[in-house]
Amino acid sequence: CLIENKKTETWDNNTNKKITLLHPKIRQHTIDFINDAERKLNLKLRVSDGYRSIEEQNKLYDKGRKNSEPIVTTVKGGYSFHNYGLAIDVVEILDKKAIYFDNKHPKIKEIVEIAKSYGFLWGGDWVTFKDYPHFEFRYGFTTTQLLKKYNAGDIDAEGYVNIN
């Protein structure tokens, strides 16, 4: 009986670097999702965004509010699952260019199905704001609860909010 060895990396060095900054509980799920999409759908997916500090989140939130750039997020620092290493944004790499997902991507249903098979929730399922490239884990927490834990110092040895 052969046992399939799990891969510990993806095809993409940029993605691999971003995965190392994710919460330890979702790192392998992310690797498996990216590799499964490549194997089953012949797609090269890249994690374009993963962990984002609260400070980085606030800078993103200010775009379009404190300058003439377009608004890129509706949430302030502490209220994104990215701030806890529990979310990723994914793009397809085709001919060395990033293809951003929307609901018209020819393989979006299959991509989402693979992601959900690993436990990811999809931003395209949201009612008020559709975020098609976004996938996250919540582990039963809201961002308000995670921020409270963060502010209380409920942090593990690697510096991530405890979600056990």
UniProtKB/TrEMBL annotation:
Coiled coil: none annotated. One of its GO terms (molecular function) is peptidase activity. InterPro entries: Peptidase_M15C, Zn_M74/Hedgehog-like. It holds the Pfam family Peptidase_M15_4. SUPFAM superfamilies: Hedgehog/DD-peptidase (SSF55166). It comes from the Bacteria. Residues 77-136 form the Peptidase M15C domain. This is M15 family peptidase. It comes from Candidatus Schmidhempelia bombi str. Bimp.
